[in-house]
Design brief:
5 strands, 5-stranded parallel beta sheet, DNA Cyclobutane Dipyrimidine Photolyase, subunit A, domain 3, alpha/beta, binds flavin-adenine dinucleotide
Length: about 475
């Protein structure tokens, strides 16, 4: 009987799991997760991500019946486990972060040399990041033709699940109390289990609830942070509790068999397309998380200002929509996409703080922190990325609030000290009549901060900074 180690990583599910299915066909399996912190010299998983991982591993253990959890270096642990258990095969689904690719390549070579059979599969993406190329055989640098080329290829359906039998690993699993993934003092994640349902079952339920209740109108309403018309699947997708193939197949079925809106479904799947685009960018440009994709942006005169950075992180900028977003992030591990764009623009353009500082904060605090999506999105907002928003398009955070949170519900939820202001004053309390402030119980500078920067002045300063980029040779027409 062949025994195969299935090394789980960012594929924490049983359904549509090609490595698991292949192993189950060959004989017995040993499902394994290795807590490796930090991964191969790369930066560690962020704290919010660790909280999710802890819950997700518990769920995977339940779905499989048994999950062996070890801590250490995969390159040391895998051959040891193979020896102890008598496993001759090792399989995994591919990861696409540059450090993970380097780690897996080295491990595979070593294991093969030791006489073990190693196979890897695609479980995380609709298409391998090297597969979809433009007419000249080069990686796409613009999203729309990339996604058109993806759609022209057609989607692969999810893999059917296989029955499996678990072999005795002859190795003790690390108990959950020793995983060291949860926050302790203070437990800033208290209550998150009421907001989120990590794990495969939770992911599938989330998708079904979204398709049934909130897909209708997604195309427009996805911009409204006060409304529920988004999937909130991002942490589930990051940890591979659900695959994009499953999302695409289930969404298509909801349109064909359940009469859901084809237009909204197309828009929703195009967002999955942005995820594919980010992964192919990271694969082809591995420095994406640390270096400007457009080198001309190296000339930007970033400010270093710890107190402004702290005010931004804590949601104390005096700009209600920015503060609401940063507080939503801190309290829930999530922030709505529209607001992510506004807060990122505020940090980069109003405060002129390097996008990498914002990327690092998101990395630590987002439950869906994802190297490809995070870096691509920050560079998109900065204007330094591929197919990015032009630098000179600077969001007005006050108008963004009025437009996308028209009733002020989102701001009132996360900035409750402004809750009693009327909509006339809520989006910019600094010009509110003294009587209105008084009757709402607000003392500016005490109960709510004065703005840390003036919008009009910040805009002029940002554009001045951008002159340096232009001089350094940025192709401005290319960023528009
Ligand atoms: C500054 C900034 C940082 C971001 N950092 C991350 C991150 O670390 N991890 C992350 O998953 N997303 C990130 N995003 C993208 C986006 O905000 C989230 O994917 C989205 O808000 C997740 O909510 P949802 O699942 O309800 O999205 P939906 O609107 O329901 O979209 C469905 C799925 O499509 C994918 N998706 C949607 N928008 C994007 C996008 N712009 N780029 C790539 N994939 C996308 C996600 O996997 C998402 O779950 C970032 C965006 C910005 C502006």
């Amino acid at each position: 009987m062949t025994t195969t180690i299935v090394w789980f990583r960012q594929d924490l599910r049983v359904g549509d799991n090609p490595a698991l299915a292949a192993a189950a066909k060959m004989g017995d399996i040993i499902p394994l997760y290795i807590i490796e912190t930090p991964l191969n010299g790369a930066r560690d998983i962020g704290d919010a991500g660790k909280w999710w991982l802890h819950q997700s591993l518990l769920e995977l253990d339940k779905s499989l019946g048994s999950l062996l959890v070890l801590r250490g270096k995969p390159g040391d642990l895998l051959p040891k486990l193979a020896k102890a258990s008598g496993a001759t095969n090792i399989v995994w689904n591919r990861c696409y972060e540059p450090n993970a690719i380097a780690r897996d390549t080295a491990i595979k070579a070593d294991l093969v040399q030791r006489g073990l059979t190693v196979e890897s599969y695609n479980a995380a993406l609709l298409f391998e990041p090297w597969e979809v190329k433009n007419g000249s055989g080069q990686p796409f640098k613009v999203y729309s033709p990339f996604w058109r080329a993806c759609l022209a290829r057609g989607m692969t359906p999810p893999k059917k699940s296989q029955k499996f039998t678990i072999a005795n690993a002859k190795t003790n699993s690390l108990p959950p109390n020793d995983w060291q993934l949860l926050p302790t003092k203070p437990n800033w994640a208290a209550g998150w289990e009421m907001l989120w349902t990590p794990g495969e079952v939770g992911a599938l339920k989330r998708l079904d609830a979204f398709l049934a209740n909130d897909l209708q109108g997604y195309g427009e309403l996805r911009n409204r942070p006060d409304l529920p018309n988004i999937s909130r699947l991002s942490p589930h997708l990051h940890w591979g509790e659900i695959s994009p193939r499953q999302v695409a197949a289930r969404t298509t079925m909801a349109v064909d068999a359940e009469g859901r809106s084809a237009k909204d479904a197309t828009k929703f799947l195009s967002e999955i397309g942005w995820r594919e685009f980010a992964y192919q960018l990271l694969y082809n440009f591995p420095t994406l998380p640390s270096q400007n994709w457009k080198p001309a942006f190296d000339a930007y005169p970033w400010r270093t200002n710890k107190s402004d950075l702290k005010a931004w992180q804590r949601g104390q900028t005096g700009y209600p929509l920015v503060d609401a977003g940063m507080r939503e992030l801190w309290h829930t591990g999530y922030m709505h996409n529209r607001v992510r764009m506004v807060v990122a623009s505020f940090l980069i353009k109003h405060l002129r703080i390097d996008w990498r500082q914002g990327e690092a904060w998101f990395w630590d605090t987002l439950l869906d922190a994802d190297l490809a999506n995070n870096a691509a999105s920050w560079q998109w907002v900065a204007g330094s990325g591929a197919d990015a928003a032009p630098y000179f398009r600077i969001f007005n955070p006050i108008e963004q609030g009025r437009k996308f949170d028209p009733n002020g519900d989102y701001i009132r939820k996360w900035v409750p000290e402004l809750g009693r202001l009327s909509n006339d004053d809520l989006f910019w309390p600094h010009d509110a009549p003294p009587m209105a402030l008084k009757s709402a119980g607000i003392t500016l500078g005490k109960t709510y901060p004065h703005p840390i920067v003036d919008h009009a002045e910040a805009r002029i300063a940002a554009m001045k900074g951008y002159e340096a980029v232009k001089q350094a040779g940025a192709n401005v027409s290319n960023v528009a």
